Amino acid sequence: MEVNWLRISLVLTLSTLLLLGGCATRPINDPITEFSPHKGYQYLARQHSEHHDNLVILAFSGGGTRAAAFSYGVLETLRRTEVVGPRGIVRLIDDVDVITGVSGGSFTALAYGLYGDRLFDQYEKRFLKRDVQGELIARALSPTSWPALSSPNWGRSELAAELYDEILFDGATFADLDRGRGPLIAVMATDISTGSRLIFDQSFFDIICSDLDKMPLSRAAAASSAVPVLLSPVTINNYGGTCNYRAPDWVRQFTDSATTPRPAARALRRLKELESYIDSAHRPYIHLVDGAISDNLGLRGVLDILETFEALHSLGRPTPLDDVRRIIIFVVDSKSSPKTAWEESEQAPGSIALLIQSTGVPIDAYSSDTVELLRDIQARWQALRRIRDSATVSADSDPVVREEMNAPDSGLYVVDVSFQELEDRKEADYLNNLPTSFVLPTDAVDRLRAAAGNIILTSPEFQRLLRDAGARVATELSTAEDSR
Fold first, then answer.
1. Within a 13 Å sphere around the CA of 362, how many CA atoms are in the beta-carbon half?
2. β-strand 96-102 against 184-191: which pairing, if any?
3. Which of these, 213, 273, 220, lies nearest to 36 by C-alpha position?
4. Three-state DSSP class for 98?
């Protein structure tokens, strides 16, 4: 989570409005009366019917418009990347199955999930090159907004959600994403009470016995980008324990197994954390803030998916990994690291600067650890396949050993798309000093988009992918390609 002085001015301006009276009521998420597994907007309910060689996952980080523009540049690059496979020549973007997003990255993720290729004709004008921050401040200062903003049931994030709906989402809900055939969009927020990472998908909403389909996309984006203090939490109702929710049947295989595989142990821990929400009698409300607090890269959800699939595979259960030759993960990290001169001065930094640094540094370190966990999975799969292929593990080996050696056959590619990977150090310094706000100069937006493409095309991991997949990168889009 990153904060700058422009955004700090927003909360200082809005704080004076809290003395006024009002009667606005926040939107209420609808309950469900009966749990139906694999129904609604969730990954297992959205498996593609046709065979895919590639499982492509994009993880979009937080960072305001900087993150939105940088992740948009990734989509533009994948749109120009053509892969030769069993289905002929296809664009790599058409093989994207999952996009995770937090904070600024959630806007690009949700907008692409909603509009698909139409996004490339409108996103710059409607969001990236727009003074969203200025419009939000102007709306907050308008006397017509004062009664609502002063209400205990209507916060600054609800006002922001209204603006996002008008300028970008056009009243769309998760039902609109559910009806589409695009990738699953997994937007994340943080439960400020527990620090838990929560994903806007029906599998979590089943736990709290609520209907995600009726949730506006704008409200999910507002929750994912609700920087504490600057923006108010987004509150949703918890109806857990009222719809006969049952944990997935594969959980019993893990718990009944004499030796639970290590990936399964991590998956079970995560499930236990989420199932605590079933006790709605003692926690009837969930207050959501910026997803960057619990996962600034949007990558923890990706780890959950891979570790669950890995554990299921080790127990002989079918998973999407069974038919996938390559798992390709783009870690799109728009974190900026502006230099300070604190160590050059005897005077200590002020309290606000210290607050920003003390929250940002642990989050950045946590994000780095998450990337290392992903690379650990990559290295483990490669090592286990080498051992298995060398016939070190025989049919007479101990069953536990055979189970541990049973790595998925899918190749795993992790493409690091971050400013530090940019070969042009002068350009990297420029991008590193861009503020975290919802307004950037037009030139900055264009440079962020271009940088994303340059980083991908020069990435050694991406070049390895191209060689292994027999892919080529289109130098320019023809009219026919652009209309697809």
1. 7
2. parallel
3. 213
4. strand
Task: Tell me the C-alpha distance between 40 and 43, whole Å.
Answer: 9
* pTM greater than 0.85 (yes/no): no
Closest CA to 202 of 175, 164, 221: 175
Long-range pairs for 6-13: beta carbons < 8 A, 24 or more residues apart: 6/133, 6/435, 6/437, 6/439, 7/64, 7/133, 7/227, 7/230, 7/436, 7/437, 8/230, 8/352, 10/133, 10/136, 10/137, 10/140, 10/230, 11/156, 11/229, 11/230, 11/231, 13/137, 13/140, 13/141
Amino acid occupying residue 30: D
- 470 vs 7, 81, 82, 447, 463, CA distance in Å? 46, 12, 10, 29, 10
Q: How far apart, in whole angstroms, are the C-alpha atoms of residue 209 and residue 406?
A: 36
Dump pLDDT digits (tens) for 158-206. Answer: 889 999 999 999 999 999 999 888 899 999 999 999 888 899 999 999 9
* Closest C-alpha among 162, 144, 188, 429 to residue 291: 188
Q: Which two tokens stand for residue 367?
A: 């994000």
Compute the distance between CA of residue 55 and CA of residue 323 in angstroms, rounded to an integer. Answer: 10
Burial class (CB in 10 A: 0-12, 13-18, 19+), 315: middle
What contacts 316, CB < 8 A, 6 or more positions away?
Answer: none
Please tell me the distance from the alpha carbon of residue 52 to that of residue 95, in angstroms, as a whole number: 7
Residue among 246, 239, 277 at smallest CA distance from 35: 246
Per-residue pLDDT of 29-45, as tens digits, reads 999 999 998 889 987 66
**For 334, phi and psi rounded to 5 degrees?**
-100, 20
